[in-house]
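Good day; I would like, with your permission, to put a structural problem before you. The record follows directly beneath this note:
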Amino acid sequence: MLREYLRNGQNLRRLITVIFSMILLVPVILPVMPVQAKSGAEWTIMVYLDADNNLDPYGYVNVEDMMAVGSTKDVNIVVLWDKYDDVANLYKVEAGDLIAAKGFKLNGIEANMGDPNTLRDFVKYSERNFKADNYILVLWDHGDDHRGCCWDDHPEDHLTHQEITGALSGFQIDILAFDACVEGMIEVAYEYASGDLDIEYLVATEGYVPGSGYPYYPILAHLTADPTMDAFDLSKTIVDDYIAYYETKRPASRLVELAAIDMSCIDTIVQQIGELADVLEGLLLSDREDNHEMIAEAKGEGNLGWSEYGWEAYIDLPSFVSYLADKDVQGAEDLYETLTASMYVVASNALSSAEGMGIFFPGSFGSFSNNPYWHGDDYLAMQFPHEGWWDFLQVYWGV
């Protein structure tokens, strides 16, 4: 048919006019056409692996576990790995292989994992280049309750919780998981619930994390087998797989507990703690001797037989509140119900008294002020103490 047009000059001119008109119409048509969104994976797992310290050997173990599963079309596994004796690199973890991510500005240099800009750059790159419907960020390293986590030896630095919340501002984080010790504290949870972050679940322990950390192989195997898990399902899977893994280990590694904390409940919990603190203050002011003894007994019920820096520093919050509820202290029963409803928690048999969330409760003002490991100034930089708990502690201490 085209040949017939070419034989006739008039028809040729008509053809050119039609084509030219169609070209002119394209800019008018395109803006109103629906744009098909690029489909991503179901989950992107972002592991901020700060092994630039004495945990370096365990970094290799955990990365090997990740490679035993590897990324799939539905699950991206991304790790920023800083080794003790080598530079940092951001990798996409494939089955049996690590693929260095192109264009990440910190690749091949001695990155400071204690710098919040490093964390922000990692999350920003990961969410832009490994798009997914859901994101989990794992902070891998040493943890120190209200002081923060991710201690880097080269250079010497660490991330405070205030630095982490600032670095994560504006990003989608469905699950924030601490593969680090003693971060399952109300002080920590409130720091991440009270800002402009939108985190659905916090996965953390009020106790220690053994050197091997999370068992990444079973966790990732379960996720890749069922990538449609929602945030609660994946948080629960992490908890279950973690406890199951360490129950098979030697007795010294069985002192473990892990909880998935619903962050939408934290504001209510903190409000109820503040109300309970007011009640306890009133009891101490009305009859100090008897009520101080009762509160001290409740504190003892929360003692788990372990502590990061001495048995008197941290206690299990639900156990403490439960004892007060048994004594009919106003507000304690409601708080205990909120606490238990907000957490999915599993503990090994050796730590069965742990109910999922700790709280800082030194026995005296002197120990709070003078124990160099407790870092009282860092504690008071947290937001939670100023919601009524710090006032209660001072009345309890008699200062």
About this structure: The first helix runs from residue 2 to 6. Residues 1-39 have pLDDT under 50 and may be disordered. DSSP finds 15 helices and 14 strands in the chain.
